[in-house]
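Exercise 7b. Backbone tokens:
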């Protein structure tokens, strides 16, 4: 017998927290430095500010499917979610995705460690090793206390990052408005319309892996509308912030795409042109917050997954989390030696192509079909486990 299911509210502290973790995981080394914006959007031409909506909508669709699967089964690690989403071929496809996702979770935090070490070296004169050590310790300290702390940390720093991005982007756009409007009015294209669109989609493809960080922070999500609310907020927030930075960097074209020094840190190049002393503090602060929040989001997601495989009998959860996250960060540090540009331009792009076949297509077919099946079980009072007594 089917019962009426309480769909809950769209916007709650939990949904805001999940959207914040999504943004803080997105706003990492490549985002704050501008290297991602140049590689995937700005260098192609005038349509650059519009493609972030396409990319973030794609990410949001994946996020919704995975949040719903996780909610219906009260599971929050990416391995558990894909096993439910990919039934009946979950043994093969789910295991393959688990392996690829675990490997891919090295790239974003590796870029953060590389960027963090360089930042501490430039600002404080710390040796690269000490800068990396600071990033590692701070990431572990946040991750060991669980999903509520990660959500709170992500929410607080997200607000701070939004303020910093809005201030910097606002001044940057205003200072280079003539260059930006010329690109838009004259419809200047540097590659082609097809290539421009594809790179925007490719950005969404590799960013879709962020769902794992969002799902890991969604502990306690009980209602269907909470998943919708988190996705709606996430799409709006990420699109607005990404488009603002893209517009700002467009004001530095074509130099930011052709000059080797400008290409390394395009945002810093544009900020330096503004000659505003306060930004010498605001921009490094933004970059640091972006680095640490992204590292936390991804390491926390992996921490939950590896916790199902290792030290399963350890009763001290915080000690267990400390050991796992520290060990993972050491591996991340090794990957970080490849360098920031190589990770963003080659590693992320390759990941996007792989995700087409092991994430996008399966989630939009098997995942959607399984959601329909699991919702029927929800209406019958079987799912979510142990909490359907509150439905009515």
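Sequence design result:
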């Amino acid at each position: 017998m089917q019962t009426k299911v309480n769909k809950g509210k769209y916007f709650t502290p939990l949904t805001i927290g999940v959207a914040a973790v999504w943004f803080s995981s997105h706003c990492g080394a490549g985002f704050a430095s501008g290297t991602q914006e140049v590689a995937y959007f700005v260098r192609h031409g005038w349509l650059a500010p519009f493609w972030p909506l396409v990319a973030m909508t794609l990410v949001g669709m994946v996020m919704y499917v995975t949040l719903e699967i996780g909610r219906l089964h009260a599971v929050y690690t990416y391995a558990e979610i894909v096993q439910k989403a990919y039934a009946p071929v979950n043994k093969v496809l789910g295991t393959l995705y688990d392996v690829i996702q675990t490997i891919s979770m090295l790239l974003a935090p590796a870029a953060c460690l590389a960027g963090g070490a360089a930042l501490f070296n430039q600002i404080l004169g710390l040796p690269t090793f000490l800068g990396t050590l600071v990033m590692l310790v701070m990431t572990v300290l946040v991750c060991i206390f669980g999903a509520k702390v990660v959500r709170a940390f992500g929410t607080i720093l997200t607000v701070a990052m939004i303020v910093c991005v809005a201030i910097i982007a606002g001044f940057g756009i205003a200072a280079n408005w003539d260059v930006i409007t010329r690109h838009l009015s004259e419809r200047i294209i540097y590659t082609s319309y097809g290539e421009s669109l594809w790179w925007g989609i490719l950005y969404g493809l590799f960013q879709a892996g962020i769902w794992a960080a969002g799902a890991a922070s969604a502990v306690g999500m009980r209602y269907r509308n909470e998943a919708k609310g988190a996705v709606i907020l996430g799409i709006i927030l990420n699109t607005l912030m990404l488009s603002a930075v893209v517009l700002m960097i467009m004001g530095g074209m074509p130099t930011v795409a052709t000059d080797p020094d400008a290409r390394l840190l395009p945002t810093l190049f544009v900020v330096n042109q503004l000659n505003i002393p306060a930004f010498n503090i605001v921009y490094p602060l933004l970059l640091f917050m972006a680095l640490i929040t992204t590292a936390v989001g991804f390491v926390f997601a992996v921490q939950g997954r590896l916790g199902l495989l290792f030290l399963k009998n350890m009763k001290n959860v915080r000690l267990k989390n400390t050991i796992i996250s520290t060990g993972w960060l050491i591996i991340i540090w090794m990957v970080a030696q490849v360098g920031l540009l190589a990770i963003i331009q080659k590693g992320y792009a390759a990941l996007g192509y792989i995700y087409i076949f092991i994430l996008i297509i399966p989630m939009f077919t098997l995942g959607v079909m399984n959601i329909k099946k699991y919702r029927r079980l929800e209406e019958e009072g079987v799912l979510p486990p142990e909490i359907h007594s509150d439905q009515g």
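Instructor comment: The CA atoms of residues 18 and 218 lie 6 Å apart. Residues 13-375 form a domain with the Hydantoin permease fold (CATH 1.10.4160.10).
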